[in-house]
Amino acid sequence: MTGRVLPSGEHAVLVEVDSLDEVLALHHRLWVRERPPGLLDAVVGARTLLLVAASARDLAGVRAEAARLVARTPEPMSTASGDDLEAVETMETVEIPVHYDGPDLDDVAALTGLSPDEVVGAHTGRSWRVGFAGFAPGFAYLVDGDPRLAVPRLATPRSRVPAGAVGLAGEFSGVYPRSSPGGWRLIGHTDVVLWDLDRDPPALLRPGLRVRFVDAGGDR
């Protein structure tokens, strides 16, 4: 693995690596298994991990531990073994019931060569993993789905996508936590609340969690 540990302000460093799997492996080690003293937060990106320390003194230890792990080339979570594999297998799974009635379901079927029912079967047929969050509070980019569902974004984004819309874009699936513009292809909707300030933590989906979509029935 090629990685860099870069300064990011007075109390943070940004770790750059080659893949999301490597990011999640580092996140697991630094946040779950081997959290250095004074590490306040670890923010996952597609190819980066932002590590925020409580003080400049704590940052020195955080930086050293991050550099050590990058040099050690931690095994990606998708191919982990031993303790890491056990951690992957026991990750919390969040079930999200979906009504597969989205306006782009037929288009996704045409793009993938599947029938609409086969698209639903592929979307629900395996668990997804929360890769990272972004775009809006509570929006999670889900990975590890069926590769047949990789479809391009819409050429022209919608000006309004309703809260709870379930979409596909590239290798990702996601659920819109609130009404917003968006260019993902919408295959259904859910009534599950993704972002709730009265919940601790507010985000239902967090990096590393597993997500299982369940067909809630209804017309499509």
Automatic annotation (TrEMBL):
InterPro entries for the chain: CT_C_D (IPR003833), Cyclophilin-like_dom_sf (IPR029000), PxpB (IPR010016)
Entry protein name: KipI family sensor histidine kinase inhibitor
GO molecular function, one term: ATP binding
Domain Carboxyltransferase: 3-205
Gene3D superfamilies noted in UniProt: 3.30.1360.40, Cyclophilin-like (2.40.100.10)
Keyword terms, alphabetized: ATP-binding, Hydrolase, Nucleotide-binding
The keyword ATP-binding is assigned to this record: yes
This protein's record includes keyword Isomerase: no
Pfam families membership: CT_C_D
SUPFAM superfamilies, A to Z: Cyclophilin-like
PANTHER family xrefs: 5-OXOPROLINASE SUBUNIT B
